[in-house]
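Fold sample X.
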Amino acid sequence: SHGLAPNVVLTASDADVIKTYVRLGMGIGIVAHMAVDEVTDEDLVALDATHLFESSTTKIGIRRGTFMRSYMFEFVERF
């Protein structure tokens, strides 16, 4: 809305890689709130930017008839 354009030099899909780039002084990073750990990321400053982005929904698909092992159930429950 202010006519600003980002200068994106590096991109990464893994939050830990993005946080490493920030730690190396390569700029700022945008990661999901769930990717920030208060203990391991205490050296980083996290700002709430939820007002800048639309929410998104992630879904888990499981093929019908798939034998669900206990670790699969645990993953879905934790997710």
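Fold sample Y, listed below.
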Amino acid sequence: MNTKLTLAAIAAVFAVSTASAQEGAVDFEKQILPVLKEQCFSCHEKEKEVDGRMKKPKGGLRLDGAAHIMKGGKEYPEENVVAGKPDASWLLKTMALPDTDEYAMPPEGKGDRVSAENQALIKKWIESGASFGSWKGVED
């Protein structure tokens, strides 16, 4: 058997399988971060001054940095995002609650609910390991 031909065949199979895996991969920075910025950051980012008053992140939960997302808030610390376990991840759970639930996010009057399509994307991101890629966000 020709060694060069065998190596070329192995390389081709690897390239196809890698490309297929990447097609289904969710890119946090391109696909998840824009959803969080648009629908969550106004209440869940670093403490800042607004109209002369300090505005703290609601529930102590910050979503503006990878470490903060994984840390969680005052309630359910370390369970905000549980890599590989979307059903155990409160970030997703609260988005999926009915509008009438007191824990639904965002709360009534605080913005539009996260669409089913974006919830499915977040679920897929969590299922696949909740990788942030090279994104770190705000680290302090």
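Sample Y note: DSSP finds five helices and two strands in the chain.
Also: The helical segments are 3-24, 28-39, 66-71, 90-96, 116-127.
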